[in-house]
Amino acid sequence: MPAYPPAESLILTAVMPSPRDLEIARLLGWYRIPLRSAPKVVDVDYLAFYQTDAFGVDHRWRIEYFAGVRGHELTTRGELFRDQPDHPRSHEEYYKIQIAGLQPLPVPIRAERWKRVTFLYTTGDLLQKAETINDLVVHSEERQLLWRSLRERALQAESYRGSALPENELDLDPEILVMLGALGGMTGFSGEPDDTN
After folding, report:
1. By CB count within 10 A, which of 89, 105, 188, 197 is most buried?
2. Helix, strand, coil in percent for the chain, rounding step 5
3. What is the pLDDT along the chain (197 residues), one digit of tens a residue?
4. How many domains does the chain have?
5. What's 52's domain CATH number?
6. Does 37 reside within a domain?
7. How far apart are CA 107 and CA 18, in angstroms?
8. What is each CA distance from 164 to 101, 132, 149, 171, in whole angstroms?
9. Is the four-CA dihedral 3, 119, 16, 92 of positive or negative sign?
10. Cα angle at 27 between 24 and 153, to 5 degrees?
11. pTM: predicted TM-score of the whole model, two decimal places
12. Which domain holds residue 174?
């Protein structure tokens, strides 16, 4: 595995809420995203994991690891955690994203001013050059290339499910624009672990 994903890779930066979740990724080879808060496209080449405050002062608010994506499926939280059948979200749907082994970045990418992170699409090229999370935001002509890649993958996913949308119905989604950095920031995650996920 390379020290970084290839430059042309489509990468989803995703929240790693706790060290326990990192161990699940490392030992069991999967990462979960609640369907209700999932980004529009999960068919990406790699995940890069943003570590929250739960990782402690030496490892919080940074990206230290990435992993190749092998595939994904829709399941329930109860299927993911069979030892927690009475959990309040046991019947909620989750994406289970199968990943290859965790790979450490040669140099961690720090959050600096951005502590509230949910999901952010970026490229392998930007990940290779980034010193801070702000450096992962896609700008100008690169945004069009990234949008085209996301749109193609969304169309493939819809076609796979047998319910392809007409081309004119896949306009720019405001949530994707935010993930691309077009609306000036990132949304949602407080940087605190959510034990109910």
Report:
1. 105
2. 30, 25, 40
3. 568 999 999 999 999 999 999 999 999 999 999 999 999 899 999 999 999 999 999 999 999 999 999 999 999 999 999 998 889 999 999 999 999 999 999 999 999 876 777 899 999 999 999 999 999 988 866 777 777 778 887 777 665 445 444 444 444 444 444 455 443 333 333 333 344 45
4. 1
5. 2.30.130.30
6. yes
7. 20
8. 33, 37, 16, 14
9. negative
10. 70
11. 0.76
12. 10-179
Q: Is 3 contained in some domain?
A: no
At 197 the pLDDT is: 56
- Asked whether residue 184 is assigned to any structural domain, the reply reads no
Distance CA 56, CA 70 (A): 30
| CA dist., res. 67 & res. 47, Å (int) | 5
Looking up tokens 């161990």, which residue turns up? 23
pLDDT of residue 153: 79
Three-state secondary-structure class, residue 66: strand
What is the reported pLDDT for 2?
Answer: 62
- Asked if the structure places residue 185 within a domain, the reply is no
Q: Which residues of 84-102 are buried (b: 16+ CB within 10 A; e: fewer)?
A: eeeeebeeeebbbbebeeb
Token pair, residue 160, equals 């796979």
109 neighbors 130 (Cβ within 8 angstroms):
yes
What amino acid is encoded at 179 in this protein?
A: M
In the numeric block, which tokens belong to residue 153?
Answer: 């993958």
